[in-house]
Amino acid sequence: MASEKPEVPVTEAPVDESSPTSSTRGQEPNKNKSLFERATSFLGDWYYIWEVFGILISGLAIITICMVVKHFDQKEVPKWEAKVPGRKEPFRLTINSLLSMLSVLGSTCAMIPVTKSLGQLKYLWFMEQDRKLADLEVFDSASRGKVGSAMLIWKLRFKHLAVLGGLASLLALAYGPFVQNLLTFNIKYREVNHDALLSYSWGYAFEVDNGGSGVTVEATDRSLQYAVSQALQDATVDWAVPALMCKTGQCSWPDYYTIAACSRCQDISHLLTRTCTPVVTSEDGFTETGGCNVALPNGLSLNSTGADNPQRVVMVMNTTMSPLASNYSSPLAFVQSIAGYPSEGSGSKLSKPFMITEDSLLSAHECTIIPCVQRQNLTTKLQIDNDSDNIVPSDNGVIPSIDIIEQWDKYTINSTTGSDGYAYIPFDDPSVNKNINSQQVNTYTSPYMEMSAYNAIKKYLAGLLNDYVSSNPTSTEYYPKGAASSIYFHTVNGTWTPPYCGGNETTVKQDGVVCGMNKIAAGLTNAFRLETWQIIDSPDRINGTTNAAKQICKAQWQYVSAPIAVWILGLVLFIGVVIKTRRAHIKAWRTSPLATLLLRLDPDSREHLKDWQNMGDAELKEMAQELRLQLQIDESGPRFVRRTDGSPS
């Protein structure tokens, strides 16, 4: 025999007339209530106090977050520490932790009006027309979680005010991550102190005592020779860094003046003549006749070097021929050069022995190096892995950035015998030149070079620059290995480093002999400065700024969009719910389960649901999909009414 479902009898208990009515309950004294109960009762009388509280606090949280981000934008990451009794390590709070706490506060408060408004909208949803009972669960789920919010948006198809609540709930997922991304941290170098030192000099003098006899002889400082040698080799940019002290490698100095050597070159390639005859090579391959000779009007030519195979000479530099373009009186160096290079279309470079032919590129220059005063600006920085300066070789990782802003080169020589006296560089003294910084004013003397040192440098440079380059018939080697060879090698292979040749705001990109002479002059300048740097307690030093690596905050304001969007959606939703609630003439029941529990069903609905206690969850959901109810309010109070003739919604 089939079992029958037990029916639970439903009885209606009589109302106890002695029970207090609603009016008498409202007049019950508060003397038995605690302080907390009185406070919550007072707040409860304000229908929307919690929604307003959530909107205000979440808005203040966003404002505070923005103020924190704005305050620390482009500033060093703060370090907040506090000593805690009983602990060796202090308590530390990071700026990310602060933002995280503010985001939790803001997102939590922002969801108060959202969840309560969604709870209220479920009643308004049923008041508009008859709805499926299952919709009650959809709205309830939306007010409690993200999955429910997504289901609500899908059901409503963006056609109801409740969609704003669903969107706000889903956007709240991005609230915390977006706040965390408001600040990023980059390593930048910032000023830490002013202990960086830089050399400069108003004059140069170098003498050698001849065996302690008290008689000085003209000689070149070995450090000067080394500086010039390193400049010509140009293997790294280290030689271009003048004498200085910078603890971090990242330093800068104000504009300063120093005695220097200046290079002046003029292109005289238009004066060249080329004469070519067929090349005849001996059987052993080591002797050749013919080829091309290139010459200048003053007699300087590739054949004037005395080389065994003059047709193999590809570059000549000479310091004794008569000038063709310049008129400097007794400069530190004077040199004329002729050079031939592989044609652009030959592609030979140094891949095979090269000799000048009828289509070879020719170049001729007349250069001088003279004493001068330069106004310079220097900044040093460290070579960073992802920096474009990685293409610049540096042994110590320091890359100099040198700008020559102004130059004074009208020198005069004041000497009676040629070996006494000085070479002076007329220069506006501090009373006229307002660009001289305060550190140099007190050490200023008229810029000069002592003639004994001047003459020694002239002799040294004359020997260094009187040179030629010849190619080997059987290899790609070039010899002799001197100044001309270094200049030719760097020019053909394009291996000059940027300092003094690379081009920047104040100089033009240069190559060949011009670049080589610029680097020789820069090497001499550094040697002049090194001479005073080596003197203990020398006043000829400029104080600069030392920069150190710091973690710097950077604001990314686009990420404030999520918190603001959540706040605006919550505000608009709240205002809309308040308006709809007032128009519907119902109370603000929000998410209260008591309101749902106490709402009455009409007799027909109760009859339809009399066996609900015998149904499982799946059966209840199936039944709820078929049952259509509408919330109605009449003289008997609010109740759900079953509708059987309503259109599907």
Automatic annotation (TrEMBL):
<feature type="transmembrane region" description="Helical">
    <location>
        <begin position="161"/>
        <end position="178"/>
    </location>
</feature>
<keyword id="KW-0472">Membrane</keyword>
<keyword id="KW-0812">Transmembrane</keyword>
<dbReference type="Pfam" id="PF11374">
    <property type="entry name" value="DUF3176"/>
</dbReference>
<keyword id="KW-1133">Transmembrane helix</keyword>
<feature type="transmembrane region" description="Helical">
    <location>
        <begin position="557"/>
        <end position="579"/>
    </location>
</feature>
<feature type="compositionally biased region" description="Polar residues">
    <location>
        <begin position="18"/>
        <end position="27"/>
    </location>
</feature>
<dbReference type="InterPro" id="IPR021514">
    <property type="entry name" value="DUF3176"/>
</dbReference>
<protein>
    <submittedName>
        <fullName>Uncharacterized protein</fullName>
    </submittedName>
</protein>
<feature type="region of interest" description="Disordered">
    <location>
        <begin position="1"/>
        <end position="31"/>
    </location>
</feature>
<feature type="transmembrane region" description="Helical">
    <location>
        <begin position="47"/>
        <end position="69"/>
    </location>
</feature>
